[in-house]
Amino acid sequence: MLDRLTLSMRASHVLAALLVVAALVLAVVGSAIGDTFYLRLATEALIFAGLALSVDLLLGYSGALSLGQALYFGIGAYTSALVLMKVPSFWLAMGAAAGMTFVCAIIGGLIANRVRGVYFALITFGLAQVVAKVVYNIRDLGASDGMIGIPVIDIGIGPFSVSAGNPVGFFLVVLVIIMALYAATAYLLDTPFGRVLTALKANEKRVPFLGYSVWRARMVCYLAAALIAGLSGALYPMLRGFVSPELMFFMTSGNAVISVILGGVGTLVGALYGSVFLVIIKSVIGSWTDHYLIIIGLLFMAGVLFMPKGLIGFVRPHVERMIAPRHLRETRAPEQDAPLKAEEVKP
Questions:
Q1: Using CA atoms in the order 220, 224, 229, 231, what is the torsion angle rounded to 10 degrees?
Q2: Which residues cross the membrane (predicted)?
Q3: Scanning 8, 13, 50, 212, which has its CA 20 to 30 A from the CA of 290?
Q4: How far apart are CA 160 and CA 199, in angstroms?
């Protein structure tokens, strides 16, 4: 049965496909003209899009605002860097980053999920700040200078091999990984567990009466979001060749939140578009003036005031109208955000 949530998710998939097409066009053009800078910039935008995706999973679907999601992004980045310095293996680095992130997320989740609302945001912020300060003072991790000299590796994909130093090749590898994370997240949200998360955001107090554990659902969502952030962070040292404690600072988390709000909270694909938009704006405006944060702040406020549903929240209803079956177009306008009727919700 095609309900409102499924229709919205299908519209997001269409917009995600358009993003992939645009990325492939960029790769072809970049390869043809021998561009390096913009391909590397686009790769960085995709990596941080993974972080934004994890924020949107928490904020857009369970209603939990994390101000310290960069903690797991940084843990993934440092774990990947440490492995690559010892054993230059892409898959070993990604696996180690996932494992370390998962263990740390269990500890962080047990702490953060004891509270709700603004207290959850403050706890996640505090956890990230504490760990960032610890890393900042550990000499074996490079202290304030971070870790440098991370080797350029070859990524084995079946019978093929792609060098992380190849701008086009690594861009395509990152694109595949980030879109795989998007697809996995979308699949999770389309399961009954995803509907439980939506119910948590709508009215958490009623969920136990349906037979579901609120704490367990929030914990699983927290762990999933942390894994997405950690796997995205694991790609960063492969791109830049270094990691620093700044990856765990509040600015990194704040940029991810801004990306989600600009793209559209709860749209999933909006996190990807918002991150790409933010990285491009920072690069373009940063080349004009050192005070680019002022302009980004003004753009952010304008977006919140005039496009409260974000860029994708504005565009997606039109996509829904194009792909919706006729009976849904006739009975329900896509731009309406009225509560779902009982017959529209999957059992």
A1: 140
A2: 58-78, 90-112, 118-136, 168-189, 209-236, 256-280, 292-312
A3: 50
A4: 44
CA dist., res. 281 & res. 302, Å (int): 15
More confident residue, 39 or 345: 39
**Beta bridge pairs of residue 163:** 154
Q: How far apart are CA 218 and CA 204, in angstroms?
A: 10
Q: What pLDDT digit, counting tens, does each position of 258-296 carry? A: 999 999 998 899 999 999 989 888 887 877 877 778 888
Tokens 């136990």 sit on residue:
208
What average pLDDT score do residues 26-49 get?
90
- The answer to whether 199 and 211 are in contact (CB under 8 A) is no
Least confident stretch, 68-82, 88-102, 236-250, 314-328: 314-328
Confirm if 271 and 50 have CB atoms less than 8 A apart: no
Backbone angle region of 299, left / alpha / beta, with phi > 0 → left and psi within -120 to 50 → alpha: alpha
Give pLDDT tens digits for 149-180: 899 898 888 778 888 889 999 999 999 999 99
Residue 333: pLDDT band with limits 50, 70, 90: very low
- For residue 147, the 8-state DSSP code is B
Q: Which of 82, 75, 79 shows the shortest CA–CA distance to 106?
A: 75
Q: Which CATH architecture has domain 4-325?
A: Orthogonal Bundle (1.10)
Contacts of 22 (CB under 8 A, 6+ apart): none
| CB within 8 Å of 246: residues ≥ 6 apart | 146, 252
Tokens, residue 192: 């009954």
